[in-house]
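Technical note accompanying the year-one report. For the benefit of new consortium partners, we illustrate the data format agreed upon in the data management plan: each record pairs a sequence with a C-alpha cell string. No post-processing was applied to the example shown here.
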Amino acid sequence: MIKMAKKKVCIDAGHYGYYNPCPNNSAYYESKVMWKLHLLQKKYLEQLGIDVITTRADQSKDLGLTARGQKAKGCDLFISDHTNAVGNNGMNETVDHVVIYHQTNDKNTKVDDVSKDFASKIAKVITDVMGVKQPYRLEARLSDSDRNGDGKKNDNYYAVLHGARMVGVAGM
C-alpha cells in the first residue's frame, strides 16, 4: 500500500482589525468575517486530517502582505480569504458571482499551474454552496513592476500571492 504524504495548508484571513467595511451594510467588516471564516476552514480541514497553519494568531495584529504569503513556506497550498462584493457594480447590474484570483502564469514554476487548477475546482464548490446565480470567474493579475528582480514583469499584483510564490507554494 502506498502511503500519501499529509497535506499542509496555510490560511490567511484577509485584512486585520476593523478593516474594509461594506458600503451597503455598516455592520459588515470584511476583516471580521474573514477571521471567523478562516477559523472554520482550519477546524474542518483539520478534521479531514490536513495540517493547517494560519498567517497570524491575533486578528488585531497586522502583518505585511508579502510576509503573509511567505508564511506558507513548506505548505502545499496558500489561501487568502476575502470578500469584495457589494450590492451592485455601479452599473445597475447585480453582482452575484464568485471570483478566485490565482497566481499568474510563470513558465519557471509549476506552482502557478497548481494554483489555477485548484482555483477552478474550489470556485465551482464555492459557487454551488453559496447558490450564486452567475458563473464563477477565475482571474490572475500581473504587477506593474518586477517584484522579484528577475528582469521580467510576470509577478503577481497581489502581494500575498507573490509572497507564496516566492516560497514555492501555490496560492489563491
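Partners are asked to follow this layout when depositing records. The chain has a mean pLDDT of 88.
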